[in-house]
Design brief:
seven-stranded mixed beta sheet; about 375 residues; globular; Aspartate Aminotransferase, domain 1; Aspartate Aminotransferase, domain 2; alpha/beta; 2 domains; about 15% strand; four-stranded mixed beta sheet
């Protein structure tokens, strides 16, 4: 079979399964609204949970940083791409979250891939929550370490996996708040079991950092645990992009010496580090924003309780509405778009077959009338 034949077959199968993914050109957007194809929509698909993407202080910091340091880093951090602003941001993050060191990455996907790529060796094992992000599971499946999954958010399933002998080291992998279900991991129980078995815990807290915990310190802080490895990302509550790995000093030095993702990637622009320092300040001072987000979540859940679709058990900004079949989820998303609400339909392979859903995301920038508009559209579609 030629490349072209292979491509056509895969594309035909994707279309037939109502799983076709399509990028839409966005002309303009804020956290609340989105303009595309000449229409304005109420925006319920953004991960900008605190509304910081358009915050004046964050924008001004990026502009100031670009004026001082240019638009790009110019090289990897191991050559000439590691600026004072990067070092300052790393130190601030480590101090904020109670770690010895922080290392910056260009994205959360890259950070997760880097951790598992570097740590997993032949006799080691990786025990991952079965609903962990694709960046974690993909890296683990290509690692020389043995990958085993445990049932979602089930400490007893992890305990059974840990009871099996392992010649090498054990890395347990989970998320703080899961990106597709919106539920929280039982981090205290997972951390205790991992520690008792002599393993290390990796928590990807992309959707918890900035949103929960004192000063927005995230899921690990909220649950009173400090995993050996914590990945936080800046494309959600921080409103920017990039990521960081929090760890101890020896681990950080090991990554700096041997991680190909760090050594051979151009560093994030110093201007971005300027903007992230400003975003960090807003996150730390953002208790009013977090309270407003929680009010919006409660408002939505009250209004959605009587809908015919299953509202998943989530207290986070991610409010999935389980529809079932791909075609039904796509149709419901289109119906909402006709009513002026932009909500993405999520289908396999991102989620398990038969669990296609609308992934509704709420933010601190939403107003009560925005949520009322969405609820009205959902109830009209249900009727």
């Amino acid at each position: 079979m030629s490349w072209q034949q292979r491509f056509r077959q895969a594309l035909d199968q994707r279309r037939a399964a109502d799983g076709w993914r399509q990028r839409r050109i966005i002309d303009e957007q804020t956290t609340r609204t989105l303009h595309s194809g000449g229409r304005c929509y109420h925006h319920f698909s953004s991960n900008d949970y605190l509304g910081l993407t358009r915050h004046p202080a964050v924008i001004a910091a990026w502009q100031q940083g670009a004026a001082l340091t240019g638009a790009g880093a110019g090289a990897s951090g191991h050559v000439t791409g590691y600026h004072r602003q990067h070092a300052d941001l790393e130190a601030q993050l480590a101090d904020w979250l109670g770690y010895e060191r922080a290392l910056l990455f260009i994205s959360g996907f890259a950070a997760n891939q880097a951790v598992i790529h570097l740590l997993g060796e032949k006799n080691d094992r990786i025990l991952a929550d079965k609903l962990s992000h694709a960046s974690l599971l993909d890296a683990a499946s290509h690692s020389p370490a043995q990958l085993r999954r445990f049932s979602h958010n089930a400490p007893e399933s992890l305990a059974a996996r840990l009871a099996s002998p392992c010649e090498g080291e054990t890395l347990v992998v989970t998320e703080g708040i899961f990106s597709m279900d919106g539920d929280s991991a039982p981090l205290a129980a997972l951390a205790q079991q991992t520690r008792q078995a002599g393993g290390w815990l990796l928590v990807d807290d992309a959707h918890g950092i900035g949103v929960v915990g004192e000063q927005g310190r995230g899921s690990c802080w909220q649950h009173g645990v400090r995993p050996e490895l914590q990945v936080i990302t800046f494309g959600k509550a921080f409103g920017v992009s990039g990521a960081a790995l929090l760890c101890d000093a020896d681990t950080a030095d090991y990554f700096l010496q041997f991680s190909r993702h760090l050594i051979y990637s151009t560093a994030m622009p110093a201007a971005q580090a300027f903007a992230l320092q400003a975003a960090l300040h807003e996150v730390q001072q953002g208790e009013a924003l977090r309270q407003r987000l929680q009010q919006n979540i409660r408002h939505f859940r009250r209004g959605a309780a009587s809908l015919p679709w299953q509202l998943m058990d989530s207290e986070s900004a991610i409010q999935p509405l389980l529809v079932g079949e791909n075609s039904e989820a796509v149709a419901l998303s289109a119906r909402l778009a006709e009513a002026g609400c932009w909500v993405s339909a999520i289908r396999p392979p991102t989620v398990p077959p038969g669990t296609a859903r609308l992934r509704i995301t709420l933010t601190a920038a939403h107003r009560p009338e925005d949520i009322d508009r969405l609820l009205e559209a959902l109830h009209d579609a249900a009727g």
